[in-house]
Write a sequence for this structure.
């Protein structure tokens, strides 16, 4: 299957700082990527849809000024958590749609953010 | 109507046994039903998926049973192994790639 890579896998930051998480499709072009948030022992919650070359579409209740998403190329989307606070600590996962897939999403390995 | 209800929340099975996880949906516009396996600290990985035009799909030890009239689908893991211990998520989508995920089932297979 297609490979989606996330970086970093773990990040610890101080409260008030900003953190950028990268999501790359390694062997295919992804016009659409998705960002999810997952709390411990919970399901995946869709945060936003990232479209190459256009603004991201955020789900209801997700602060777009807090979670900045950029999809500057067909293989890279970034999520920046701005002015992070401890309540932003979570597992963030991206996924991408392969152009050749038939409805299949490929997920990254996830990024564990801990805000002190 | 957008929810996907998943049960049980947790499941313990003996090695060699059959693990069964169930999901139910309301939205009849859903036309793609994947199952994902997730290990701790990792992203979900696609296990198997089905579309409503078939009632069953089997891949190795994993089988999806699909009941369109009841709006239910289930995952069966035959000959369950300790390495299958993970969290399993069902999902549904309809015409888009915005998946609606179930709440997850934590499976533990005892050696």
């Amino acid at each position: 299957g297609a490979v989606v890579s996330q970086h970093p896998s773990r990040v610890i930051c101080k409260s008030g700082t900003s953190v950028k998480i990268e999501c790359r499709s390694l062997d295919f072009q992804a016009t659409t990527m998705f960002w999810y948030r997952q709390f411990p022992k919970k399901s995946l919650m869709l945060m936003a849809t990232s479209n190459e070359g256009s603004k991201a579409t955020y789900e209801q209740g997700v602060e777009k000024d807090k979670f900045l998403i950029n999809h500057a190329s067909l293989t890279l989307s970034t999520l920046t958590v701005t002015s992070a606070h401890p309540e932003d600590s979570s597992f963030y996962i991206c996924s991408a749609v392969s152009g050749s897939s038939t409805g299949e999403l490929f997920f990254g390995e996830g990024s564990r953010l801990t805000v002190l | 109507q957008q929810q996907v209800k998943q049960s049980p929340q947790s499941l313990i099975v003996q090695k060699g046994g059959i693990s069964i996880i169930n999901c139910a949906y309301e939205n009849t516009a859903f036309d793609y039903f994947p199952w994902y396996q997730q290990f701790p600290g990792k992203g979900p990985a696609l296990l198997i998926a089905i579309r409503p035009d078939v009632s069953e799909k089997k891949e190795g030890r994993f089988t999806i049973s699909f009941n369109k009239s009841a709006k239910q689908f289930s995952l069966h893991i035959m000959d369950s192994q300790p390495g299958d211990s993970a969290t399993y998520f069902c999902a549904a989508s309809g015409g888009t790639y915005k998946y609606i995920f179930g709440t997850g089932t934590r499976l533990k297979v005892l050696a």
User: Anything to note?
Assistant: The CA atoms of residues 42 and 86 of chain B lie 10 Å apart.
